[in-house]
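$ ./design --mode recover --in tokens.txt
reading tokens...
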């Protein structure tokens, strides 16, 4: 068996022991293992690891790799997602809190593990649109989503899989919060405009219950923000 590695490099012996512990932890499948990228990927919901602590999601992958000119023979996909989560945090883009991420080779195949905290109180944008939200609440969500995407793109980072099901929202009264999930296809682009074009075109096609009027309002909010400024608000 090869050493356990993270996106930052080889882990010391205690990190290898942590991999074993997380890998063997029992939980409920919320996304059953399915075949993707020549391997297998699934997600388990794990119980909280202590009192007053959040539940955890564990993404488990076997033989699930990506290839680039730097890694022509393949590299575990979870390691790219780890880098994306850290990059988003640096940009001020809300994402699930990273608990543990590592990969190892076992019996000739990569095993990858990504453990993150549950976003308590959040629901996907698609599910949220099934609720009876007021115009004020919808605009608050769209304004916040525009801010989050502007921060992401100002760093020349592309989400890569920007579907409504990967955008999570929490609304309390007229206050909205937005976070992004499933960043395993995220990457940095040489030109910011390519990241913008790719993500917005993708979201338009996969926005689920968002009506055209809300889409146009989201675009207006997005384009009203100066580059690098994700804290402004579009006028109602």
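writing sequence...
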């Amino acid at each position: 068996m090869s050493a356990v590695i993270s996106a930052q490099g080889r882990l010391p012996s205690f990190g290898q022991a942590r991999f074993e512990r997380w890998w063997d932890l029992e939980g409920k499948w919320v996304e059953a293992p399915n075949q993707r990228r020549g391997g297998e990927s699934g997600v388990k919901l794990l119980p909280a690891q202590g009192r007053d602590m959040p539940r955890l999601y564990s993404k488990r992958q076997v033989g699930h790799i990506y290839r680039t000119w730097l890694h022509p023979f393949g590299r575990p996909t979870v390691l790219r997602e780890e880098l994306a989560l850290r990059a988003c945090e640096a940009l001020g883009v809300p994402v699930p809190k990273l608990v543990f991420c590592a990969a190892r080779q076992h019996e000739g195949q990569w095993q990858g593990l990504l453990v993150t905290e549950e976003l308590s109180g959040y629901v996907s944008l698609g599910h949220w649109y099934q609720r009876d939200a007021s115009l004020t609440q919808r605009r608050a969500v769209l304004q916040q989503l525009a801010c989050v995407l502007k921060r992401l793109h100002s760093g020349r980072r592309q989400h890569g899989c920007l579907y409504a099901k990967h955008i999570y929202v929490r609304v309390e009264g007229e206050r909205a919060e937005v976070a992004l999930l499933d960043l395993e296809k995220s990457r940095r682009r040489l030109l910011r405009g390519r990241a913008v074009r790719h993500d917005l075109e993708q979201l338009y096609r996969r926005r689920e219950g968002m009506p055209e009027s809300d889409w146009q309002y989201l675009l207006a909010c997005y384009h009203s923000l100066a580059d690098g400024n994700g804290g402004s608000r579009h006028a109602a």
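exit 0
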